[in-house]
Amino acid sequence: MVEEKRSDQAPVSVGDTVECEVEQIMPYGAFVRLSTGQRAMIHISELSYSYVKKVEDVLEVGKKVTAKVIKIDEKNRIDLSLKKMEERPPVAPSAPKETEDNFEKKLSNFLKISDQKIADLNSKLNNAKASKKRSKRSK
Q1: Bridge-partner residues for 19, per DSSP?
Q2: C-alpha dihedral (26, 74, 5, 40), degrees to nearest 10
Q3: Which whole-number Å values give the CA distances from 44 to 47, 62, 113, in the listed order?
Q4: Quick one: DSSP state of residue 81?
Q5: Reduced to 3 states, what is the DSSP secondary structure of residue 20?
Q6: Model confidence over 103-122: pLDDT tens digits?
Q7: pTM of the predicted model, to two decimals?
């Protein structure tokens, strides 16, 4: 197991902004070394508000970043976030009323077509049963 380097600086707490350097990149996030010598992790979901396919798209080994401490668990593992350092992008306005009406029309049309298909299928099944009964009677 990797030993953590200790320094004279005070330990970090939740909400602190820290400087760190990327040490290792994994598919699920990156491990970083804080300026205090402590090791921490930035999960892939905490890299950016936008979708991140691979950690390498945002970080690289040796890169120095500023992050926010979002969690310290009972085992003193530190979780960091880069996206908490960014300004949250504005939320898109809700769909206009026209879109809702359009959806209702499409749904209504779909249900009509579906009912027609079910009626046709039942009609064919009933005709097939009737023809089998006729063929049995004629024997």
Answers
A1: 66
A2: 30
A3: 5, 17, 45
A4: E
A5: strand
A6: 888 999 999 999 999 999 98
A7: 0.58
